[in-house]
Specification:
Layout: H1 24-29, H2 33-47, H3 52-65, H4 69-79, H5 86-93, H6 102-116, H7 121-128, H8 133-156, H9 172-179
């Protein structure tokens, strides 16, 4: 990871609280700031295709499917500010989508299937019944990006912000301890 002062001045704006903040993954990517900036533009375009809540549900599902602790930890923090309840995070962390409404349930099933390479016609058709083709493309690309990111992060062994993993089914108290 680069220290903030090692990041070229032309890219310091990416690390403000209004934009990225100070997440470890971005300080690693800052070794190639042009790629970092282009990747963020791509992701922002994808993110604009879904509500912030749905995007976070998809990312949490990918992280859980791949047992990607760093990505899960980061998005527990982010998701709680995007309308995802701690109980919903615990449900995803426990591989239980049953408490979600039908539209979110099928979205989470699809995200898990894409992440694991097991999409069936039945899962795709169920998704297509409630999401339009453009949203389905965006979901697939978000899942694919995060699958790659989970693999990348595993190869660089990033430490957690806060030093310790929040856990797959964190209590409300544990979430508050780490992120408030």
């Amino acid at each position: 990871m680069l220290d903030r002062e090692e990041i070229p001045e032309a890219y310091q704006h990416l690390f403000t609280e209004d934009y990225l903040g100070d997440r470890h993954i971005f300080r690693v990517w800052a070794h190639n700031p042009e790629v970092l900036e282009a990747t963020l533009e791509y992701l922002n375009t994808l993110y604009d295709q879904l509500t912030p809540r749905l995007k976070e549900l998809v990312i949490l599902t990918v992280a859980r499917t791949h047992r990607a602790r760093y990505e899960w930890h980061q998005h527990v923090d982010i998701a709680r500010t995007r309308g995802v309840e701690a109980s919903e995070m615990r449900a995803i962390g426990g591989d239980d989508f049953s408490g979600f409404d039908d539209e979110e349930y099928v979205l989470l099933q699809y995200a898990r299937a894409v992440a694991s390479g097991d999409v069936t016609d039945q899962i795709h058709d169920a998704l297509a019944a409630v999401y339009d083709p453009g949203e389905i493309v965006a979901v697939g690309l978000i899942v694919d990006f995060y699958v790659g990111l989970c693999n990348y992060v595993a190869s660089v062994d990033l430490p957690f912000e806060g030093g310790e993993f929040v856990g797959w089914t964190p209590s409300d108290d544990r979430i508050a301890e780490f992120f408030e």
